[in-house]
Amino acid sequence: MWKGMDEHDIIPVCPVCGQPVRQRDASGAYRGWHVQCDSRMRAAMDAKRRARQAGELDERLRYWSAMLTDATGDIRVSVIDRNTVAAERDHWAAVLTVERCRQAILAMRMTPDEVNRYRDPWLRRLCADIGRDGMDLIADRVGWSGARPWRRDPATARDGTLHAAGQLPVPDDPDTREGYRGDLERSPGAALTVMGALDHIWKEDNTGTPGEPGPWRLR
After folding, report:
1. pLDDT in tens, 125-149
2. Residue 89 to residue 41: CA distance in whole angstroms
3. Residues 155 and 176 sit within 8 Å (Cβ to Cβ)
4. What gap in Å lies between CA 3 and CA 163, rounded to an integer?
5. Which of 20, 51, 98, 102 could serve as 179's disulfide partner, Cβ 3.0–4.6 Å?
6. CB 192 within 8 A of CB 95
7. Residues 6 or more apart whose Cβ sits within 8 Å of residue 4
8. DSSP tag of 155
9. 66: three-class secondary structure by DSSP
10. What is the DSSP secondary structure assignment for residue 19, as one 8-state letter?
11. Distance CA 207, CA 215 (A)
12. What are the φ/ψ torsions at residue 30 (nearest 5 degrees)?
C-alpha cells in the first residue's frame, strides 16, 4: 500500500464479474460490486443465506431424528415388554378360568352337602367368580338335584367376576397341562370365557382319552 493510501483508495474487484469496480457510492468510497451486477450479487447473497438456513435446519433435523430414533427404540422396548406381560397375564387368566370351573364341578360331585349348605366362604367366592349362568350349567350337566343357593346370593352376578374381567385369550401352547388340554380351540382371536371354558371341559371329559375322563364324569 502506498503511503497515504487508505482503504477508500483501493479499487475493489467485483465478486460477481471479477472486474475492477471504479464506481463509487454517495460517500465517495468505491462500491463493493458494480451497479449492473447488483441483482446477481443480491441473488448470490440470498442463495448463500438460504444455504446457511438449510444447513441449520439440516442440523436441527439430524438432532431431532436422533431423538426420535431413541424415543422410538424406547417405545419399541415398552411395547415388547407390555405384550410379554399381557401374553403371560392372558395365559394365567385362562388357566384360572378353567381351574375354577373344574373346582366347581368337583365340589358338586364330591362335597354336595357343602354346596347345599352354602356356608363355606371359598365356595361362595367360587360361585361369584363363575356366575349364576355358569353354575347353573355345571349343575345341569352333572345332574345336580340339590339346592342352587348361588341364585339367591347377591354377590353372585349372572356372568361372574371372571367373565366381567373381560374375555381371556386362549394360550397358544396346546400341550400345557395347567387345566386344559390339546383339544382346546386356538383360532385367531379366540377368547376363553367361563361359558367357553365349561364347553371345553365338557368336550374334554366326554370325548377325552382313556384313563383320563376328567372330573365332569368322575369315573
Report:
1. 999 999 999 999 999 988 899 999 9
2. 70
3. no
4. 102
5. 98
6. no
7. none
8. T
9. helix
10. S
11. 13
12. -65, 140
The one-letter code for the residue type at 149 is P
Give 38-50 pLDDT, tens digit per residue: 877 888 888 888 8
pLDDT in tens, 60-106: 888 888 888 888 788 777 777 776 776 676 677 777 888 888 899 98
Q: Over 60: is that where the pLDDT of 6 sits?
A: no
pLDDT at 206: 67
Residue 197, burial from CB neighbour count under 10 angstroms (0-12, 13-18, 19+): buried
pLDDT at 185: 44
8-state DSSP, 7 = G
pLDDT higher than 60, residue 28:
yes
Distances 131 to 20, 114, 139 between C-alpha atoms, Å: 99, 18, 12
Cell of 216: 365332569
The letter for the amino acid at 165 is A
Which CA distances in Å does 185 have to 127, 174, 197? 25, 9, 11
Burial class of 162 by CB neighbour count within 10 A (0 to 12, 13 to 18, 19+): buried
Residue 132 is predicted with a pLDDT of 95
- 169 three-state secondary structure: strand
pLDDT in tens, 151-200: 999 999 998 888 655 444 554 554 444 444 333 444 444 566 788 788 87
Q: What is the DSSP letter of 172?
A: S
Identify the residue whose cell numbers are 354377590: 155
Residue 137: how many CB atoms within 10 A of its CB? 19
C-alpha 43/C-alpha 106 separation (Å) is: 91
Contact call for residues 41 and 15 (beta carbons, < 8 A): yes
